[in-house]
Amino acid sequence: MVALKTLEQKVNGFGTLIQGEITELFNSTTDEYAFEQMAGNIDKTRSYILPLIKQCQAKSVLDVGCGVGTMVNELFKEGLDAYGVDLITLGKYWQEQGFDPERYFFVDPYNLQLPFQDNTLDFAFTLGVIEHIGTSDGHADRLPNYHEIRATWLKEIYRVIKPGGYMLIGGPNRKFPVDTAHGPDSKASKLELKLTKLSGATIHKTWGENFLWAYSDIDNYLSGLPYEMRAQSVKGYVYFSRVPKPFRLLSKWYIDFMPKFMLKTGFNPWVMALIQKK
């Protein structure tokens, strides 16, 4: 196991650096969504995450925003030294599945403090999470300082990665005008809301502020730190279950055969940034 910081307390058997009473800030995970994640994340782990981890020759792995914890458990079963962190509301799902409490920890999304020493992990990934960091509701209502919160959050993940290790940051692309994974930004215009209602998918402008993010945001958040970033395809990770049915096959084809030079552009619906710490 990797070197941990001294934990402040344990809540329901799971450790945390949070001091005092831990309250539920918001509960953005329904039981229905949790069970969907338990099933779907096994396939995503085996078809996408695990091959990439092996490619990076990583042995110790952290899932930041691990949700119901399925990916961490699958990676552990594959022989990896795997850990996960998330909100206290997710603890009940870790308990129900009988996961090892030494591998799961509670964190504060507004002040992320990971329970690991500096430069201890080979690989960390956070998928579909950063767009909800710095929001008041865990969804799409941006706080005035959301960029600052996200920068602090991403730098904390960077801190625990070994030099030469990797971070994988993924989520829908702010520069692409369609988002099938979320509802609209809380400050969406009337036109955006109308187009969203008509299309069955969230339509948003590709300029200005939005709770979604883009490759350029990562460069801003990690400014001044030594790293190299490479855009990755999301083939094998995105299943298009929320894409309106008539467009699913076309969407899959579009993603599967996207040229490499387009991955880091506004033509790509997803950001999937593999960052190597220098």
UniProtKB/TrEMBL annotation:
CDD domains: AdoMet_MTases. Pfam families: Methyltransf_11. One of its GO terms (molecular function) is S-adenosylmethionine-dependent methyltransferase activity. Keywords: Methyltransferase, Transferase. InterPro entries: Methyltransf_11 (IPR013216), SAM-dependent_MTases_sf (IPR029063). GO terms for biological process: methylation. This is Methyltransferase. It comes from Methylophaga nitratireducenticrescens.
